[in-house]
Amino acid sequence: MTTPPDRRHFLAGLALGSLTLTTNGVVAFAATPSRTKKPNHATAVQAKVEKEANLVFLSGTAALDLYHRHPHVPQDEVLPSDAEAQTHMALRNLFEVLRTEGLEWSNITSLICYQQNMADQKVIRKVLNQHFQGWSPALSFVEIRKLSAPNSLLELEAIAIAPSPARKDRSTADMTDLEIIHTRPKLADSMIFAPGIRVDAHSDLIFLSGITAADLEETEKNVPLPNDFGEQVRMATRNIDRILQTLNVGKDRIVRIVSFYTDDFDGREMGRYLEGWRPCSSAIGISALPQPGAKIMFDLIIAA
Hints:
The chain is of the alpha+beta class. The protein has helices at 83-100, 121-132, 229-247, 268-274, and strands at residues 18-22, 34-37, 43-46, 54-61, 108-115, 138-143, 146-147, 154-162, 178-181, 196-199, 205-211, 254-261, 280-285, 296-303. β12, α4 (268-274) and β13 (280-285) form a beta-alpha-beta unit.
């Protein structure tokens, strides 16, 4: 068994946030996941360790066209007003990415639905069942305040498994441990995020949560944060830089970044920060964060 890299102590002084490390000998998901139904609408995915299984992370997608323009323009944001139609449209976007990788709905192991109204859960479940046709990934529903497009009612964020046979038609010379997935390559430059990223089974992954503007080594949890939203974004990204430097990796090793924000946030600040790298991304408007005074929080997955 491979000895895990000694990265577990670099957040010893972190007041908020958490770390999970996986190595190529301990894979959290399987190439052929099996379904376990639980009562009270809970779902779980039972998985075996499979060294040759690749993870595919998919960006959060709403009912807008997958390759909509950034910053958003009004004509791209004309959407149906009902959750049923928007769920079909969001799933269409997810499947566009899955199909490019030769995958099906049954390759999805985890699905999070961010929605503006929890009352829509019943109709969203109905549409999911129509598409998934008996397959039940681990599924969570979270009510949120807003999404980046004002007319969006929901956003779907997924993780899938890509068995090694799905890669047999690819040239070995083209394979790296991270592969950005673009379903329409000619439009790739218009995107500020990747629709999906495939991570090779032999990559180490670090999961980080709760990165805010608060000092990573601050022992006092109630130190006031600046009220300016932009300044908080800059402080939080400096914290990300410190973590990346400690890990000795660059921004191009960020696989996924989820932004939870309380003020208006269009993502352009993050685009500038990432300097051309486009990870998977979701941007979720919420009412409050655990850190007093915090207006932005990032969760990240890093390939180390």
